[in-house]
């Protein structure tokens, strides 16, 4: 354990968080494309075990060497979870990737699974051990508390979610370019109406590219002026009419609204 912690500290000193190990191929998980391997090194796969096998259920992102952020709706008290880090292909035990047990999960105290549109769809997962950072595994950079992205700000959603509504899930990590839809627009009756709150981010809605089942809990990655990628959103929900339905953009928990909660949950656990 001492050796692992020392390695983590040494690697941490050499890594600029929020900078991808490989530059993303920024084309345009529905309507998206395969990501360049290790271009989103904070992305994780949250998996549960059943009958001796592990299954991908949600995404997430690494915020400390033993903490991951995901969506509250991804968590069940009846399941056993692990987190897979540094992976591009879920079916391949790639060199440098890790699978670490989840020892504890903390769901936001105001999360109501029966009212997802009320918000607070956020949880943190404590890993059973610290992970060593590398070019494949890095910490996500989070935005400053209260940050609001402007309308049409370009971001990328990443995950192993379905490639189309009701379709198959990919083995390779996908990415899709989404433009932020500001609250004034997204809360119009012809868009999401009262289902969206100011604690959320809307992105997409063009009827082509969107998050989908299996992307939940994963990051909405947005590049800052200094070149760093920051995680501004957590995939929360989409339309029952279809993952990429027009004027029903993907809805994300707004990370900048929960910086204090994330820090407190980690500090107290």
List the helices and strands and how they pair.
Blueprint: H1 2-12, E1 33-34, E2 43-50, E3 53-64, E4 67-70, E5 81-85, E6 98-107, E7 123-127, E8 154-159, E9 174-181, H2 183-186, E10 200-203, E11 219-223, E12 229-237, E13 250-254, H3 259-267
Antiparallel strand pairs: 1-9, 2-3, 2-5, 3-4, 4-7, 5-6, 6-7, 8-9, 8-11, 9-10, 10-13, 11-12, 12-13
How would you describe the overall organization of this protein?
The chain is mainly beta and 269 residues long. 9% of the residues lie in helices and 31% in strands. The protein is built from three helices and 13 strands; from the N terminus they run αβββββββββαββββα. The strands form two sheets. It has a six-stranded antiparallel barrel. The protein has a six-stranded antiparallel beta barrel with strand order 2-3-4-7-6-5.
How many β strands by DSSP? 13
Task: Point out poorly predicted stretches.
Answer: 1-16, 21-28
Looking at the structure, the CATH topology of the largest domain is Thrombin, subunit H
For the record, the count of structural domains works out to 2
Distance between the termini: 19 Å
Run of helices and strands: HEEEEEEEEEHEEEEH
Q: What would you call the structural class? A: mainly beta
Helix fraction, binned, reads under 10%
Strand order of the largest sheet: 8-9-10-13-12-11
CATH class label of the largest domain: Mainly Beta
- What is the helix tally? 3
User: Beta-strand percentage?
Assistant: 25-35%
Over all CA atoms, what is the radius of gyration? 17 Å
Broad shape: globular
Query: What is the mean pLDDT?
Result: 89
CATH architecture of the largest domain: Beta Barrel
> Main beta sheet: strand number and arrangement?
6 strands, antiparallel, barrel
Task: Please identify which CATH superfamily of the largest domain we are dealing with.
Answer: Trypsin-like serine proteases
